[in-house]
Design a protein that fits this description.
By secondary structure, the protein is of the alpha/beta class. The chain is built from 13 helices and 11 strands.
Length: 334
């Protein structure tokens, strides 16, 4: 069998996240190693190329580690079959160098596939190549991507999404999930499974990105009103009901005006926000304590563990026990 060399290019901008390209690179390299070690029959071997999005081949990553790239976007005739755009800390507030955008659009027709890792989706979106496509990104920035590019069908309940020959993956380590899926797509389940076992990662995670998300943004992201409401509910967690009337009085507003302003500022009704604050506190207790589910339900203000369980599943898309098994503190059992 003739073995084809499949060229994987990673586009790196300044402040690129190291794991966004290092993790997937190890997946492709491990696939090559296992094919060699086992004399397995595979139609593809991978060759990895790091491509700088600037005129300088040296790129400083967000972790402070400098990486020497093989090429820059100013080099001609770079052989690439698959291009993956690594996320960069600069992506979220960057206008992007138009040269980078033009380079991506110029080579895209010659690629077998194109994709992004984590917030690299923002750069891919800026090129217009995600127009009217399904896509994902890091759960924390999914709403921002959706608002910035309304034509994209954004979701964060997947670790990666394929739409024709365009691929996007979620937060950081999701690049590994995507790379494993590409290996399976190229060479079959057996090799991809062997790679996942060697790297000690799941070939396909049973959870979703949604499980890793937080229900309430950090205080620095909240408006003064929403932050005040959050603190008021937190101070009364064990109280089973904090009514909208009570919250409106606390904010010195009419009930109707409070509900309208609060939803505008938080994106949620006061009732849903109340549940989110309580369930977010429950998640922390599940992670860091040995309290029973019934005890935690009482501690965060639910009348019964059944009501608590239903609210938890609705917001977290997992049972309290499943969540505890996934995120339980590593120090508890010691």
């Amino acid at each position: 069998m003739n073995i084809k060399i499949h060229h994987i290019g990673f586009l790196l901008l300044p402040q690129a996240q190291l794991l966004d390209f290092a993790g997937p690179s190890d997946v492709f390299n491990t696939a090559n190693q296992l094919i060699t070690l086992t004399s397995a029959i595979a139609p593809i071997h991978y060759q990895i190329h790091l491509i700088s999005g600037t005129i300088d081949k040296k790129v400083m990553t967000s972790s402070g580690i400098s990486v020497n790239c093989d090429y820059t976007i100013y080099d001609k005739d770079i052989a690439i079959d698959t291009l993956l755009i690594a996320g960069s800390k600069a992506d979220l507030d960057s206008e992007y160098d138009t040269t980078v955008l033009h380079w991506i659009k110029r080579i895209q027709p010659h690629l077998s596939r194109i994709g992004s890792v984590c917030i690299g989706a923002f750069l891919l979106a800026k090129t217009g190549l995600l127009h009217n496509k399904k896509a994902t990104t890091h759960w924390q920035f999914a709403q921002q991507l959706k608002e910035s590019y309304p034509s994209i069908e954004v979701t964060y309940d997947h670790f990666y999404i394929k739409d024709n020959n365009t691929y996007t993956s979620g937060g950081i380590t999701s690049g590994i999930d995507l790379a494993l899926a590409l290996v399976e797509e190229d060479s079959g389940h057996t090799l991809a499974s062997d790679v996942s076992r060697y790297l000690v990662v799941n070939l396909k995670r049973i959870n979703t990105q949604e499980l890793y998300s937080t229900l309430v943004p950090s205080d620095i992201e909240l408006t003064p009103l929403v932050k005040k409401v959050k603190q008021y509910i937190t101070d009364r967690l064990a109280q089973q009901a904090v009514s909208i009337i009570e919250l409106a009085e606390m904010a010195n507003m009419s009930e109707r005006n409070f509900a309208r302003v609060f939803k505008k500022e938080s994106g949620m009704t006061p009732g849903i926000f109340n549940d989110c604050v309580r369930i977010e506190n429950a998640k922390r207790l599940l992670e860091s304590s040995d309290y029973t589910i019934t005890e935690i339900a009482t501690m965060v203000g639910y009348a019964s563990d059944n009501v608590f369980r239903k609210a938890f599943i609705r917001l977290v898309t997992a049972t309290p026990m499943h969540y505890r098994a996934s995120f339980r503190s590593s120090t508890i059992d010691s």
